[in-house]
Structures are given as C-alpha cells and as structure tokens.
Specification:
Blueprint: H1 2-11, H2 15-101
Length: 102
C-alpha cells in the first residue's frame, strides 16, 4: 500500500520525489542554457553600446544642422536688414535729389 501510495504521489506530482525531480530538471535547464544566456547578455550590452554611439552621432548631427540653420537664419535676417537699410537710404537720396532739383 505504501509503495502504491508513493507511486501514485509521484505520478500525480506530489511528494518529495516529484520535488527532487523538478529541482534536478531546473538545474539541468539552467546549466544547459547558461552559455546561451551569457551570449545573449553580451549581445545586449554590445547593442546598447552601439546604440549609444549612434545616438551620440545623431545628436551631434542634429546640433550641427541647428547651428547651420541658426547661422543661415541669422545671415538671412542680417541680409534683409541691410537690404532694407539700403532701400531706405536710396529712397531718402531720391527725395533729396527731387527736393534739390525743384
């Protein structure tokens, strides 16, 4: 009866036997995939480093473009201001010439 109970307990998942088997299976699985997990973790670290490097390059390029845009925008503004000033001077000279001609 006790052998039958032990077998029944083992088959249905109860008792110390099943716990021991389950623990042994988990240990074997961990050992089997340990190398793969190490490779995966190494790959993840390499990808993170590569991603950080690419992010740094991208942000550097964004800063360059912003700087060029600001410079170009500043130059455009300065050019517009200069053209406006020259136009104003030209207009005033025309007015003076008209006034002196009369």
């Amino acid at each position: 009866m006790s052998i039958l109970g032990t077998v029944f307990g083992f088959i249905t998942g109860g008792g110390i036997g099943w716990f021991t088997v389950k623990t042994a299976i988990k240990a074997a699985i961990k050992e089997a995939i340990k190398e793969d997990l190490t490779k995966i973790e190494t790959s993840i670290e390499e990808l993170k480093k590569a991603s950080e490097a690419e992010d740094a390059k991208l942000h550097h390029r964004i800063d360059e473009v912003r700087s060029e845009y600001v410079t170009c925008d500043y130059c455009k503004t300065q050019n517009d201001n200069t053209n406006r000033l020259l136009s104003s001077i030209d207009h005033k000279l025309d007015m003076l010439l008209d006034h002196n001609m009369k």
